Amino acid sequence: MNLRTVFTTMVVLIVALVGTVWLGRGNGDLESPQPARPVASPDDDRPKIAEKGPYPKAVVDESLYNFGEMAVGQSLSHKFILKNEGEVPLEVKKGNTTCKCTLSEMKDNSVAPGKSIEIELTWTPKSAQEHFGQTATIFTNDPKNQELKLQIEGTANTLITFSGGMMGTASWSLPTMSSDKPVSYQGSMHTKYLDEFKITAIESDRSGLKASFKPLTPEELKEADAKSGYSIEVTADPTKFPLGGFSEHLTVKTDIPNDLSAEAHDHPEGHDHKHEHPAENRTFVIQVSGNHTGPIRIVPTFGVHWNPQSMVLNLGEFSAQKGKEVVLSMFVEGTEQPLEIVDQEISPDFLKFELKKDDSFQSKTKQRYVLKFAVPPGPPVSFGRTNLAKVKLQTNHPNAKEIEFRVQFISLKP
Which stretches does the entry tag as region Disordered (predicted)? Predict the structure, then answer.
């Protein structure tokens, strides 16, 4: 037997052996075919689609309605008309919604051929939005319109706008109070959504802060692009304010109900004042800030950080082991008598304060005093923006009876 014949015989034997092993595996190692999963059926609650016609025909002239501009807290509604132009009754069911959706009454959720129903969508924005959109889904048994998407959209603005304010919040700044004469600020509050509203009162916890108001003139309303509003004059009496910066609040009470119901506002320009719960009416807050310099002027020495608007002295960071001391100059006008401290309140009590008259200073209208603030060596401590140290003085000056210094610092471990 030659070499070629031997080689051929061996190849045949190997192939036969492999085939035998493979056949011996049996069907147990083969994956049995899995049964096909049934196609998910639609929700049982949805109207059933007939297997053959005739069919209903769901028609909505417009599926999108734009409210335009509306106010935060105001409820507006729009009624979509759904008509059945088919040959058999149209079955209707409400699906998911992102707003309030109401279907008009119908028998057995069915709309007869040639008849129609109203679908009312209502939305009450909770915050100002440049653009909002809400959707309601309506299921039907129309095979071509099994899901109808109805949409409402628009822009939500703050109901009341203040001059000098943003997003309905008023922040007014009074002129600097440098003498004992009252200072005033003229502002306004108005709306483009209400035909009218009333300010019932303006209140303040600060006795020296008063406010008066009167309706805006037609010319002023036109300039503000408003339908109704008021001019508000805020007046501050310097004799009843401590020296330094201040921030006070005015509470404006109105007859505007907290709940701007859809019935009272079928349109952004509609308003109804027939409400029976004045305690639930809206109030607004005006933040009034200013600076009372009075007859006192503080001049810091080089390297000392002093804010005259807030009367805050910032000592910065320093070693608790060494402590820190700074000196400022205080010039006083409006009295010929030396400035005396009638009473003082210092917090924390380890903070040291000293006031000394500079007898060498020559002026016919002013007096100069040296102010010294010191934090003695001690344990590390921090007095930041939220817990400033304070030096509150009661003086004999007729126009500076109360002076309050605030001190910020952080003493660190060495």
Answer: 28-53
